[in-house]
Design brief:
The complex is a heterodimer of chains A (about 150) and B (about 110). Chain A has about 150 residues and is of the alpha+beta class. Chain A contains 3 helices and 5 strands, in the order E-H-H-E-E-H-E-E. In chain A, about 30% of the residues lie in helices and about 25% in strands. Chain A is globular. In chain B, helix 1 packs parallel to helix 2. The chains are: A alpha+beta (about 150), B alpha/beta (about 110). At the A-B interface, helix 2 and helix 3 of A face helix 2 and helix 3 of B.
């Protein structure tokens, strides 16, 4: 993988699947272990769902920008949408007893569970989600990157 | 791999064998429609066999919760069977593992209905 790879994607359900597939491929190439690859791909999927559904609301004129950056210590994934910006204060804690049986609202919680750092920056022109997974050793998990 | 559902009856209990991915879109919709169909036919004892479910996202988790509450609200009971490690771990971190009645043996699951 190059140091930085960026994709501009439509606001569709297919984008969610494509984002997950790209995350799986890139994390695998970087040598992350099977569990970490699953965590990264699931966090990216949840971020993409957030961007497509809650950010851009499937609007055909709005795009999702997905960026993977390999730094010396981290895999940094950025997901940007062009929506109105999510209200972080309005997201209830999905682990609170009164919210356990809600059918939605677990996406950001899962991202935070699976990644080392999650930064969410909402604005009136869109939301940027930054997902960071630390790379352990020369390549994550000490494995050779596949082609 | 897309979602596949197969429904069968064992001693008055409807067992839904699920395989593939329960994710936003087709997988979640199939799950919802199947559970609604079962309840509409008057079957209130449901087991979701998740032994072949290799992936589930937050929408899929929401669909399991929806199936559970919909069944309960109609006077029925829904149990989960054969969780894969991935699904088990997800239910643990979302604190849903103790909400669902989870079984690892089909005969025991069928017998456990009141």
């Amino acid at each position: 993988m190059e140091q930085t790879v960026s994709y501009t994607l439509d606001s569709t359900l297919e984008t969610v699947d494509h984002a997950e597939e790209k995350a799986t491929r890139i994390a695998t190439e970087l040598g992350f272990g099977e569990d970490e690859v699953m965590q990264i791909s699931m966090a990216v999927r949840e971020g993409a769902v957030n961007a497509v559904l809650h950010g851009n609301a499937y609007a055909p004129d709005k795009k999702v920008v997905l960026c993977f950056e390999r730094t010396s210590e981290d895999l940094v994934i950025t997901i940007r949408d062009q929506g109105k910006g999510i209200d972080l204060e309005g997201i209830p804690n999905p682990l609170a007893p009164e919210n356990l049986l809600k059918t939605s609202g677990r996406g950001i919680f899962l991202m935070r569970s699976f990644m080392d750092v999650v930064e969410i920056r909402p604005s009136q022109t869109g939301t940027e989600i930054k997902l960071i997974k630390h790379v352990h050793g020369p390549s994550a998990g000490g494995k050779e990157a596949s082609q | 791999m897309s979602m596949k559902l197969n429904t069968r009856q064992v001693d008055g209990v409807t067992i839904v064998d699920c395989s593939g991915r329960i994710t936003l879109g087709e997988g979640s919709v199939m799950m919802r429609d199947t559970v609604r169909d079962i309840l509409a036919k008057g079957n209130k004892k449901i087991v979701l066999n998740l032994g072949e479910v290799n992936y589930i996202d937050s929408s899929g988790i929401g669909e399991l919760v929806s199936a559970f509450t919909t069944t309960k609200n109609q006077g029925g009971e829904l149990k989960l069977l054969h969780l894969t490690k991935k699904v088990h771990d997800l239910l643990q971190i979302t604190k849903l593992y103790t909400v669902f009645d989870v079984k690892d043996d089909e005969a025991a699951a069928v017998k456990a209905f009141k």
